[in-house]
Specification:
Layout lengths: L5 H23 L15 E4 L2 E4 L13 H18 L3 H14 L4 E2 L3 E3 L2 E7 L7 E6 L9 E5 H5 L6 E7 L5 E7 L6 E7 L5 E16 L5 E6 L4 E5 L9 E4 L1
Antiparallel strand pairs: 1-2, 3-5, 4-5, 5-6, 6-7, 8-9, 9-10, 10-11, 11-12, 12-13, 13-14
Helix pairs in contact: 1-3
């Protein structure tokens, strides 16, 4: 099963659209403002007998260590904040209106899957949901077990977003995709739902979506940024010792 923090995602999207709309108006309205100068360094790339020139290839910095690139990005960010300063009250007003329209407390409709009842809950003052389950044979008024509080997961990081959250077919292991860097490179982590402890293994550079295989032996399938498929056998033994990659 997959849980998605819809209200928070839409809040971020709306904020982004506000910034983009106001920036577009500011750049294309009366009096075009010049941003920081982007130098051109021709870089040829050849593939299938065709050659093209990318004047801005120098801006590629996968490790985020190039001082020229970082200085340029800082200058652009400073410029953006400067030209948008006069619009800040409007942005604050629109953002407040969006937030005021969201319920401070919101619980999803419980649903049953594979013998358990599941529910996500947003509590007042929290940006992320908490996820619960209970045996389907029990009453909804009975005690629920906390699977994950995303607010706790996010508390020690400047950025946090969740991908999919799925329970293994035997109901014993929870798998969770998380991004702490804002690069859409998720890590998939596993939690033993009997002991509450987390397995030490982490599948890095994964996508936000994955699925447990419904075979006689639980497997988990994910797609990493290299567009390959990973199969990991889950059991009492270490997850890492059963990992294999399929091209």
């Amino acid at each position: 099963m997959a849980f998605i923090a819809v209200p928070f995602i839409w809040l971020r999207l709306a904020t982004f659209l506000i910034d983009a709309t106001l920036t577009d108006h500011y750049f294309h309205g009366d009096g075009c403002h010049e941003s920081t100068h982007r130098k051109k360094i021709p870089y040829e790339m050849s593939l299938h007998g065709e050659t093209r020139v990318d004047n801005y290839y120098w801006l590629r910095d996968d490790k985020r260590e190039n001082s020229d690139v970082l200085d340029y990005l800082r200058a652009e960010n400073n410029y953006g904040r400067k030209i948008m300063a006069s619009q800040q009250p409007l942005q604050d007003r629109i953002l407040k209106e969006i937030v005021d329209r969201l319920p401070s407390q919101d619980h999803s409709v419980p649903y049953v899957k594979n013998g358990y009842r599941y529910q996500s809950r947003y509590e007042s003052g929290n940006e992320y949901a908490a996820y619960y389950r209970q045996p389907a044979s029990s009453s909804e008024e009975d005690a629920w077990t906390l699977l994950l509080d995303a607010n706790q997961r996010a508390s020690h990081s400047e950025f946090y977003t969740m991908g999919a959250l799925h329970i293994s077919p035997d109901n014993n292991v929870m798998a969770l995709a998380e991004d702490f860097l804002s690069r859409r490179q998720y890590g998939i982590r596993f939690r033993n739902l009997h002991s509450g402890s987390w397995y030490p293994e982490v599948l890095t550079n994964a996508s936000s979506s994955f699925a447990w295989e419904t075979t006689h032996v639980p497997f988990i399938t994910c797609k990493n940024i290299l567009k390959r498929c990973c199969l990991i056998r889950s059991g009492v033994m270490s997850l890492a010792r059963h990992k294999r990659t399929i091209s």
